[in-house]
Amino acid sequence: MSKFILGRKLGMTTIYDEKKGALNVTLIECEPNAISLIRTAEKDGYNAVQVSIKKNKKGNYKKEFRTGDKNELKTGDFVTIEGFQPGDKVKISGISKAKGFQGVMKRHGFKGAPHSHGHKHDWRAPGSIGAQAPQRVIKGMRMAGRMGGKRSTTSNLKVVYADIEKNIIGIRGAVPGVAGRIVEIVKK
Asked: Quick one: 174 and 137 in the same domain?
């Protein structure tokens, strides 16, 4: 059965390792997650566990994780960070930082127009957006618009720090989302 937990991103810091030197680490606080629902293959057609964590004063955040054939967990049990050890590879999912309405240079990495040869005020403009034949803008054309604020997953991150007493996991590298947002951690 794979290990999984929900946590709240605290932010980034630097931890010094004697072998590798300075490591950029994202700290995630993982309070014990309550198991709120068990799904079985006989009843639901698949095996899964639903865990919940306190989102704010008013409600909880619930997420369902698929499990293997056997499921030893019961409703009312708690999932803790004891299943995660330094050196484990994990996959982390969450809602990325929202950047608002952005132009094509920031949103899609366009180069921009040259600053000479007849260009006066359109250095950051997208350029031509359509062909002559269909006489319309084709769906999927990269243009300015809202950037970020969508579900994002980062794979193959390594656990470098685990404090069971404080319920904090240190992940090497960047994790999607702003500080305080709930993320999902799955051991590979």
From this structure: no
Q: How far apart are CA 186 and CA 103, in angstroms?
A: 34
Q: What is the residue type of 154? A: T
User: Three-state SS for 119?
Assistant: coil
Strands of the sheet with 33-39, listed across from one edge: 60-66, 48-54, 33-39, 78-79
Residue 119's pLDDT is what? Answer: 87
- The pair phi, psi for residue 39, each rounded to 5°, is -110, 135
How confident is residue 2, by pLDDT bands cut at 50, 70 and 90? low
User: Please, what is the average pLDDT of the chain?
Assistant: 93
Q: What is the phi/psi pair of residue 145, to 5°?
A: 170, -170
Residues in the chain: 188
pTM: 0.85
> Rounded CA gap, 187 and 89, in Å?
6
Q: How far apart are CA 7 and CA 27, in angstroms?
A: 10
Tokens of 63: 């997420």
Q: Which domain holds residue 62?
A: 4-97+152-187
Clarify whether residues 162 and 107 are in a common domain: no
Tokens standing for residue 126: 């997208």
Rounded-to-integer distance, Cα 170 and Cα 27, Å? 5
